[in-house]
Design goal:
The complex is a heterotrimer of chains A (105), B (141) and C (102). With 105 residues, chain A is α+β, with helices and mostly antiparallel strands. Chain A is built from 2 helices and 4 strands. Chain A has one domain. In chain A, a hairpin with a 3-residue loop joins strand 3 and strand 4. The longest helix of chain A has 13 residues. The radius of gyration of chain A is 19 Å and the shape is elongated. Chain B is an alpha+beta fold and 141 residues long. Chain B has 2 domains: 85 residues, no CATH class; 38 residues, no CATH class. Chain B has a 4-stranded antiparallel beta sheet, sandwiched between helices. In chain B, helix 2 runs antiparallel to helix 3. The chains are: A alpha+beta (105), B alpha+beta (141), C alpha+beta (102).
Chain lengths: 105, 141, 102
């Protein structure tokens, strides 16, 4: 009975943990340091890795390219988060970008 | 004073104090030429818990061999089920820092911000920790 | 005699320290780079036990004091740890350029 209980606890605590490695916010370059209020766009790209076998980090470049497409006039504020969701002998690396795009002048 | 009591006292002091770790720091450009700077801080804190390590510790301190074996087995299940790179202790919510950018936007009524510093740190007490993402900055008045 | 020589060598090696880079970050590098400012702040601990990360804020304050009415740009930040046997030094080293406002 005790073993079943312990196994139940182990299953409940398995495969649902995460770890945020970094979260960085920066203001765009402008002469007045003023960010223009606007809609915050959110981009997320991820890569599933099994047993540590990974050969590229293209998901980061894809997220960046999507950001460039959505903000053709540049950004006034940007937040980059890099995190990992843990799993059974595998994990998923994620990049989350949130940005305020500069509007047309 | 017996050694066992000394160890307990020593561990207690550590547990009360907490242990601080710095994982990542990024300092942004600081413009001090536009006016007076008023500092602000936005911080989020999520509970981190290393279940596998806790089970391993349990296995080592368990009095009976069968309990120790069970806990070692549990530690193995937890370790292989929560595989991957970790910064600090794992957390059970990956969206705890999602609102940071909105909080930073709200922090400055003038909408003029400079000197943003992003810090990823942790305060741990035994197998439990507070995983912190902190953003410091200055509002230009 | 040999044992003493080995112990002395190990002791001397432990004093030299072993440094590891934790993280590095940069902001956009400006075209104007005549006035470079640098600062660092550190925190010592025994066997890796620390109770505060306030030394990071100290580095920012020191940087600001070197460029009181200007723009600090091109900020390059290194976070490293040097180990001396059982004692560790955590350090944040920052270099940047102080430019006047246009």
């Amino acid at each position: 009975m005790q073993k079943i209980f312990l196994l139940f606890i182990a299953i409940m605590l398995s495969g649902c943990t995460s770890s945020i490695h970094m979260s960085q916010i920066d203001i765009g370059t402008s002469s007045h340091n003023k960010f223009e209020p606007g809609k915050v766009i959110e981009i997320e790209r991820s890569q599933k890795i099994i047993l540590g076998f990974v050969y590229d980090t293209n998901y980061v470049d894809q997220a960046y390219k999507k950001l460039l497409l959505q903000c053709p006039n540049g950004t006034s504020m940007i937040n980059v988060e890099y995190l990992t969701n843990h799993g059974f002998l595998s994990w998923t690396d994620k990049i989350r970008i949130k940005a305020i795009c500069k509007q047309n002048n | 004073m017996p050694i066992k009591l000394q160890s307990i006292l020593g561990l207690s002091f550590l547990l009360i104090g907490g242990c601080s770790q710095l994982h990542h720091v990024h300092i942004g450009n600081i413009d001090q030429s536009q006016g007076k700077l008023t500092p602000f801080t936005v911080e989020v804190n999520e509970l981190g818990f290393d279940a596998a390590k806790t089970a391993e510790i349990g296995a080592e301190v368990a009095k009976s061999a069968s309990t120790s074996d069970d806990l070692e087995f549990i530690a193995l299940i937890l370790a292989v089920s929560n595989f991957g790179p970790k910064t600090g202790n794992p957390v059970y919510n990956d969206a705890y820092a999602e609102k940071m950018v909105y909080e930073v936007i709200k922090s400055c009524p003038s909408k003029k911000i400079t000197g943003l510093t992003s810090v990823r740190e942790a305060t741990s007490v035994g197998p439990i920790s507070g995983e912190v993402v902190r953003i410091n900055g200055y509002c230009i008045n | 005699m040999l044992k003493n020589a080995i112990l002395l060598s190990l002791f001397a090696l432990s004093l030299s320290g072993c440094v590891g880079l934790n993280t590095v970050s940069m902001t956009q590098v400006p075209a104007e780079r005549d006035n470079q400012i640098t600062t660092s702040s550190s925190s010592w601990n025994f066997i890796g036990i620390n109770f505060s990360n306030a030394f990071v804020d100290e580095a920012i304050d020191k940087l600001k004091s070197q460029c009181p009415a200007g723009k600090i740009e091109g900020v390059y930040t290194k976070h490293q740890t040097t180990g001396y046997l059982l004692v560790f030094k955590r350090e944040v080293i920052v270099s940047a350029y102080c430019n006047e406002a246009l």
